[in-house]
Amino acid sequence: MLSEKTIATIKSTVPVLEVHGTTITKRFYETMFAAHPELLHIFNHANQKQGKQQAALANTVYAAALHIDNLAAILPVVKQIAHKHRSLGILPEHYPIVGKYLLAAIKDVLGDAATDDILQAWAEAYGFIADAFIGVEKEMYKQAEQQHGGWEGFRAFVVNKKVQESDNISSFYLVPEDGGAIASFKAGQYVSMKRELPNDAYTHIRQYSLSDSPSKPYYRISVKREDGRDDLPAGKVSVSLHEHLREGDVVHLSAPAGDFTVDLEDTRPVVLISGGVGLTPMMSMLHAVLEASPERPVTFIHATTNGDTHAMKEQVSALAGRHPQLSVFYCYTQPTAHDRALKDYHKEGLINFPWLRTVIPTTDASFYFCGPQPFMKMINRALRVFDVSAADIHFEFFGPAESLNDGQEEQQETADTV
After folding, report:
1. 297 labelled as ligand-binding?
2. Catalytic residue among 126, 137, 345, 413
3. Catalytic one among 95, 173, 332, 368?
């Protein structure tokens, strides 16, 4: 346990971290990668360039300091990050490296304000927190390897089928190259894919939600091609998968991970809300709920630009035809003339509070949502306005977590960091 002196010292740094946290984490990553470039094989370079990783880590450090006297309060964060660490292959030997450069960054940024007492307290606190992560991740590694069909590290999978689902999303059906069994997963989980790109010195690892039922003999991932825009470069890996990954090619995956999963024991109605490629974990959840609880009411709401970008529409419509307890609603922000002629969507423009209230049958339900940050902010705010219990609101960010800026608990804002 941490001493009272250490706890008090860490608590005293909370205001400083609130102001200088991101500057510290930027310095941390700069110096760590300069000394250990091999770690660039693990970290997402795009998130680094966009500053998302630095901001997410700053939030985590801040939350750890704020709750240092009650770390159980951030246990959900520990588990969420540990899932990501296990999927990436973060090992116990990486933690001393992180600790060394994090403390050095605190010293560099704060200068004389980082007294010996403060640095000693943070060294002690970091060691305590690192041990917690290592312990949790040890059990996760064990479970991933020892479960039926499980494996250690990354395993070779063959692209059995590639399907273009929309103008910008393609699905890849993956089966193990060795012909063996595959581990089951909980609907909503993801796999990490390790990919090497031509003329790139570093390996890239990306997480992709599993988009089909856990009962299938394959894994399906559905990937949006990120072509980039003025303020955002194209996604190297997603473009590579769309342009170059063919049926018969081999990719390498870690075992399924993640704690954004649908509760199949809950018998109340479930509402699944997605925007864009946030559809992918919702598809897995939809299949799982319909298979496990054929009578459970499900409301499925999906927002996208138009019919050209609407992936898996036929699959969802077919499920709705077979399951009368499934209600489906589509929102197109910019429908085409063809969409308007077909009249097969339910709202034009952005989802808003009044419309959402008309399609959600009850607030006594479990709500799951995923999509771009502005979309998630709106959905989260709406559910709060509708007095949905915080325990019934579940969401996931693709990549490092960002703030929804509506008073959410720190543990929801700081996941998916280091």
Report:
1. no
2. 137
3. 95
Query: What is the rounded CA–CA span in Å between residue 405 and residue 165?
Result: 33
Q: What is the CATH number of domain 270-387?
A: 3.40.50.80
**CATH pick for 155-253 out of 2.40.30.10, 1.20.5.170, 3.55.40.20, 3.40.50.1970:** 2.40.30.10
Angle at 281 between CA 81 and CA 255, to 5 degrees: 55
pLDDT digit string, tens, across residues 31-63: 999 999 999 888 776 666 766 778 888 888 888
Amino acid 397: pLDDT: 80
3-class secondary structure, 415: coil
CA separation for the pair 35, 15 (Å, rounded): 30
Would you say 241 is a known binding-site residue?
no
| Domain layout of the chain by residue ranges | 4-146, 155-253, 270-387
CATH T-level topology, domain 4-146? Globin-like (1.10.490)
137 belongs to the catalytic site: yes
Annotated catalytic, 95? yes
Crossing angle of helices 94-110 and 14-35, in 10° steps, is 120
Please identify every stretch of the chain with a pLDDT value under 70, giving residue numbers as ranges: 45-48, 50-51, 228-234, 399-418
Closest CA to 305 of 331, 329, 283, 343: 331
How many CB atoms are located within 10 Å of the residue 265 CB?
7
